Amino acid sequence: MKTRNILLAAATCVAALAAMPAAHAQASGIKREMVQRADLSVPGREAIVAWVEVAPGIMAGRHSHFGEEISYVIEGEGELLIEGEAPRKLKAGDAFVVPAGKVHDARNTGSGPFKLVGVFVVEKDKPLATPAK
């Protein structure tokens, strides 16, 4: 059951980032909106800007990216869990960078929404996120 829940959370994370309908994202406790996607001056790379909102008690699901994630916390409290590192507490005004390929997760530890703006500098034509085992 635990493995099923982890896989479900990871699949939801990836699917939502791929612009699933808002109703599904709301049902999972995670809202994501692709704000901008653009090619970069670096061949084979693109930048993706996304708005993310995580409901209280919800985890995003363990995953990695084919590039860096640079995020800024707009509102709420959460925890960043990067594999091999100590958990990092986050609050409004904090920012973080997740290195390319690092397995990570995030969870809302507050009583209200945890809102972020994420910028992903990733390999073009690859999935934005890949679920981790």
TrEMBL record:
The keyword Protein biosynthesis does not apply. Keywords: Signal. Coiled coil: none annotated. The keyword Lipid metabolism does not apply. Residues 1-25 form the signal peptide. Residues 51-119 form the Cupin type-2 domain. SUPFAM superfamilies: RmlC-like cupins. This is Cupin.
